[in-house]
Amino acid sequence: MATELIEHKLALLPGLPGCYMMKDINGKIIYVGKAKNLKNRVRSYFKSSHTGKTERLVSEIRDFETIVTSTDKEAFLLEITLIQKHQPYYNIRLKRGTGYPYIKITNERDPMMKITGKIEKDGAYYFGPYPNVYAAEETMRFLQKVYPLRRCPGHLGRPCLYYHMGQCLGACFKEVPEAEYAQQIEKIKKFLNGNVAHIKKELSEKMQQAAAEMKFERAAELRDQIQYIEQTVEKQKIISNDHTSRDLFNFYYDRGYISIQVFFIRQARLMKREKKIAPIINDPVEEFTTFILQFYNRKNNLPPKEILVPKSVDIANIESLVGVPMRTPQRGEKRELMALAKKNAKLVLDEKFRLMELDESKTIGAQDEIFAALSLPKGHVIEAFDHSHIMGQDPVSAMVMFVDGRPEKNMYRKYKLKGEVEHQNGADEASNTREVIRRRYTRLLKEHADLPDLILMDGGEIEMLAARDVLENELNLNIPLAGMVKNDKHKTAALLFGDDAHIHEVPLDHKSQGFYLLQRIQDEVHRFVITFHRKTHSRNSLSSQLETIKGVGPKTRTKLLKTFGSLNKIKTASVADIQAVGVSKTTAQMIKLSLNTAVKS
User: Fold this and answer.
1) Alpha helices per DSSP H over 395-459
2) CB-neighbour burial class of residue 588 (10 A; exposed 0-12, middle 13-18, buried 19+)
3) For residue 47, how many C-alpha atoms fall within 13 Å in the half-sphere facing its CB?
4) I need a labelling partner for 130 at 20 to 30 A (CA). Which of 319, 444, 487, 581 fits?
5) Which positions ≥6 away from 165 have C-beta within 8 Å?
6) From the CB of residue 510, how many other CB atoms can be counted at a distance below 10 Å?
């Protein structure tokens, strides 16, 4: 049911195109949408009945903002910009870069081939994307043998090893005509565009000639190259005969979830598939359209020559925004491929539903139990902290993040604690807590990043009071905070909550999914901080032993630590291995002698 504030704002909505941003109780943007008519679209959230994810979204909305645009096309562009900026929880979100490797032919006097994941406007030729780095490297190695360009730094004054192997045109010791490079590049482009018949015929003729001249090693090498073409290129089914690079999109929608499949057609063959499953709020065709626009708005994404989409999509609108011709296949293998993409999308979504039935209560449901036990509105992000030290030495902290009951490991953070001025002893838990909380949330505020919905401290009242002191009195933040307490067997025993005057144990059924999730969070943050502390303590112990050796300064210690990583590895290393780090033979001998003497004593 809409609040008084929302009802007032609904009455003022214009019947114009634009974008809207839904906000939760903390003012965080949780959904961004676009509309041809803002008044009708936004009102529909609060004046109609909903199910699934839309129902959950509406239950969390406490405010909204709108931005009017001149046209529907402008609303499309603004929506993508806002999604990428705010990364709202309820939108389909894509990573900023594709991460796919490309083969690049550089734009310079003596061009060379290389693998890159970064697309630049530098006049170079880019081919891809490839399924993985291995596939790209294998293809490039093959081309370097058959159609070499430059492999060496160039201008060495003498022929390089690659030149003697026939894998460099000789820029190392002579000026290679530009026409010769152009001829090779043209052959490479034909091959990478799927025209392999000519090169296969050429290699077969060379193999027969080498065999006739009894150059059997060369003949075997050429045979392997032919087999590479047969096994990696010709083995794949030909999708088209015009060698046009294409991306094909299709989707399947059911029970509030959309499943999207992307097929990459390169070299006239299906090179790679990508899939995405997400619960959605609006019409599936609209969400699908937004996905395509986000897809091509990412960095390091080289658009194809043509995009294939199902007939339900507004081709004209997307085509003008993406800048790539789009069409819907009407017949032939491309139409069959479109149907295959939809079939795959359905199979993936059906599997997702089966897993969700098993997993829902253990993740989102479990997290909802924790928030309900604390009498908090539903949230999605929990951050948990723990400390570790040995008698106050080498104090460290760590933070783990759980989103909807699942660990978000790429968001985990480690902290080497410096210790506050008034508390130099690393065993001071309150001091450690204040430092890590200050560092974590000062940074989030500076970066204008999203704050968590709940903070969990591994420990009791001391940690809770210290954390709240920093959050409220230094940073002016009001993030809900609770404590995770363990029993004498070091197992999760209780959840603490409350203000400074009255911190109490929260009733949470020890057999509930919510309690199991609490245990998992506490175990995970403890595991993470202990692992980090062991590594830190080991490196510090090694560093302190190296400090006593004459001739080993800070730079040398850093090199040794980086190269060997542990004391045992330095002890077992030879003098020559230690010298390779960049120290003199005398110093290397001194290191070996000192460490081995220390062990015996």
Assistant:
1) 429-446
2) buried
3) 10
4) 319
5) none
6) 12
- Asked if residues 155 and 171 have their Cβ atoms less than 8 Å apart, the reply is yes
Domains observed in the chain = 4-86 (3.40.1440.10), 102-233 (no CATH), 246-355 (3.30.420), 367-526 (3.30.420.340), 548-600 (1.10.150)
Task: Render the burial of 267-297: b for 16+ CB within 10 Å, e for the rest.
Answer: bbbbbbeeebbbbbbbebebbbbbbbbbbbb
The token pair at 460 is 């009791």
What are the tens digits of pLDDT across the range 198-227? 777 888 888 888 888 888 877 887 787 787
Q: What is the per-residue DSSP string for 458-486? A: ESSHHHHHHHHIIIIIIS-----EEEEEE
Phi, psi of 380 (to 5 degrees): -125, -30
Tokens of 547: 């400090």
Q: Which residue has the tokens 């061009």?
A: 111
pLDDT tens for 491-535 read 777 888 987 778 888 888 888 888 888 888 888 888 888 887 777
| Helical pair 284-296 and 72-86, crossing angle rounded to 10 deg | 70
User: Is 149:185 a contact under the CB 8 Å cutoff?
Assistant: yes
